[in-house]
Structures are given as structure tokens and as C-alpha cells.
Amino acid sequence: MGTGMRTDAALGPEIWIRGPVPAPEPVPPELAHASASPRRYSFVGTHGGAGTSTLATVYGGDDCGRDWPGPAAPRSVLLVARTHAAGLRSALRTLEAFRHGEAPPGLDLDAVVLVADAPGRLPRPLAQRIKVIESAIDVYRVPWVSAWRLGDLTGPPPRETAALARLTAATA
Predict the structure, then answer these.
(1) Reduced to 3 states, what is the DSSP secondary structure of residue 110?
(2) What are the φ and ψ backbone dihedral angles of 83, each rounded to 5 degrees?
């Protein structure tokens, strides 16, 4: 047979020629049960009175006030602003600072948290500013909570903040 074909090997797919493939090594039990811990966040206010202390208490995380996170604080940042005109302007300015590399190196900007400045619907001009922010980054909205105004932070997070609660691993 001058065709160059081997006659001592069985014909068929290569797997048949190679034989069985050994099973993968079992994962050690200590690694199989290891799970990643939830990501921790630093709440950074874009202006005074944004609500970083309340959010850090209710959702967990570090309250950085208006300062950038220190070396021991989580590097994942949630910017916080109120939904009034000055708060939304400061949120946009801080987003621009991140975009231009003016934030400290090593910080990850994950989202903006907008805290209602009053009960009820937002006026159209403020809602339009929020759309601008949403076009640049994820936005989580926190409604007006009367109990928080009175200092009662013991209840569960509002239903409307279920996505933020999942992100921060708080219970909603």
C-alpha cells in the first residue's frame, strides 16, 4: 500500500487513537467551599449633606464624606449626591474629574447614588440632568425616607433600592 496510510492503527477520530483522556484532578475541599466576599464600597459625597453617612449605615460600606477614600478604605467608589440642582451639578463635576484622571489613582468609580432631596416627583429640569448622568454611568436612586430624616436607620432599605441593596449586599 503506497498511500502513506498506517495499517497498524485503527481508523477513526484522533481521540480513538490517543485513548481515553484522564479525568481532571478533583478540587480540594477547602477551595470548593471558598466563596468571594461581597465587594465593599466607599461612599463619597459630591457635596455636603449628600447622605454618605446614612447610606454607609444602611447599606454597609465606608463613609468617606466629601474626601476620596484613604489607603485602608475600599477602592470601589459610589458617588453620592442629592437630587436638587446643586447636588446634580456637583455630581456631574465629580464625574468629569474622574473622566479627566483627577481622582486618585487606583479608584474604581462604580456608580452614582442619587438621594431624594424631598418627597414626590422631580421637576422636569432635574429629571433631565439625571438622564445626562445616567448616560455616563450606572445610577441608583434612593427615595425620600421620612424615618431617616428623624435619625431612624434601623429599618430595612426601601423596596425601590433593591438593586443598590444587591450591589452592596445589604438586605432589601
Answers:
(1) strand
(2) -90, 15
Q: Three-class SS string for 14-78?
A: HHHHHCCCCCCCCCCHHHHCCCCCCCCEEEEECCCCCCHHHHHHHHCCEECCCCCCCCCCCCEEE
Task: Select the more confidently predicted residue: 121 or 14.
Answer: 121
The 10 Å Cβ neighbour count of residue 156 is: 11
Max distance between CA atoms of the chain, in angstroms, equals 94
Strand-strand pairing, 108-115 and 76-82: parallel
Give the pLDDT confidence of 36-91 residue by residue, as tens digits: 566 799 999 999 999 999 999 999 999 999 999 999 999 999 999 999 999 999 99
Rounded (5°) CA angle 162-74-91: 65
> How far apart, in whole angstroms, are the C-alpha atoms of residue 105 and residue 75?
10
What are residue 130's phi and psi, to 5 degrees? -65, -40
What pLDDT score was predicted for residue 32? 46
HSE-CB for 10 with a 13 A CA cutoff: 8
